[in-house]
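Example protein
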Amino acid sequence: MSKTSDETFTHVRGELAWTIAMSRTPADAISMTEHLHAADEGRFELLGLVNDCEVALYWDYFWNHVVAAGFDVEGVDDLARDAPEEIRYAGREDYFAEVDPEDWDWIHPRHQWRVE
């Protein structure tokens, strides 16, 4: 039986919830984690959190750029809207070349190697 990404990254939800709970309430953090995880599929890939866990960054495979989205207990803001020009990059490698890990609250484990 092959592992799905949910099985492969089971620790991610706990790590993400813990990080969010440091800025928000633990109960809200669980709900927000589920919304962030649900949006992390298909066209959008969760990269990490910034701005004191107020903004989630996703890679948009359709437009090949980073999308910044607010999130709360109700869900993640519309990821399909146009991203501001200043956060568009030619590729994930180019984007992560510009990243300072100290500016992020949390980086998804599948991308941490890119900024080390």
Summary: The longest strand covers residues 65-72. Residues 26-39 form the longest helix (14 residues). The mean pLDDT is 83.
